[in-house]
């Protein structure tokens, strides 16, 4: 699937565009995120599967040789030692399709992002109260 040329409207539609092998990996990641952030809402953002709860938590996407996982720069920084074996940038991690995807690590990153977003939302709410 070419993420830049295809407009999808749901995560199901996104996943269906890939080979059965990649679909299985994407579904495992999706389920792991759901289990780690049961209150998060699914959507498509930037033409990628996205989970949001008090703002975007994580995005993920399939490419020809890897799965891209986007937990915001803070999610990468907090787990940088465990992610050292993967190609990454400020906001993205690449999990090679030729290797098992570290679902347990993804789960911990998602839980970190849920807590981070909840804290930011609480601080924002408190600041709003003080202005009134």
Q: Runs with pLDDT <50, length 5+?
A: 1-5
| Gap between N and C termini | 49 Å
Query: Could you say which structural class the secondary elements and strand pairing correspond to?
Result: alpha+beta
Overall pLDDT: 93
CATH topology value:
Aspartate Aminotransferase, domain 1
Computed CA radius of gyration, to the nearest angstrom: 15 Å
- Placed side by side, the strands forming the largest sheet appear as 1-2-3-4-6-5
Helix content: 40-55%
Percent range for β-strand residues: 15-25%
**Rough outline:** globular
Order of helices and strands: HHEEEEHEEH
How many discrete domains? 1
The helix count comes to 4
Per CATH, the architecture is Alpha-Beta Complex
Largest sheet: 6 strands, antiparallel
CATH level 1 class label: Alpha Beta
Number of strands: 6
């Amino acid at each position: 699937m070419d993420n830049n040329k295809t407009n999808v409207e749901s995560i199901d539609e996104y996943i269906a565009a890939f080979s059965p092998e990649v679909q299985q990996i994407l579904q495992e990641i999706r389920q792991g995120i759901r289990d780690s952030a049961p209150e998060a809402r699914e959507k498509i953002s930037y033409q990628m599967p996205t989970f949001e709860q008090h703002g975007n938590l994580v995005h993920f996407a399939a490419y020809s040789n890897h799965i891209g996982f986007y937990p915001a720069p803070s999610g990468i920084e907090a787990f940088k030692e465990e992610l050292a074996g993967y190609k990454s940038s400020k906001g993205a991690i690449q999990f090679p399709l030729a290797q098992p995807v570290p679902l347990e690590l993804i789960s911990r990153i998602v839980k970190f992002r849920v807590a981070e977003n909840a804290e930011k939302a609480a601080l924002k709410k408190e600041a709003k109260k003080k202005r009134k």
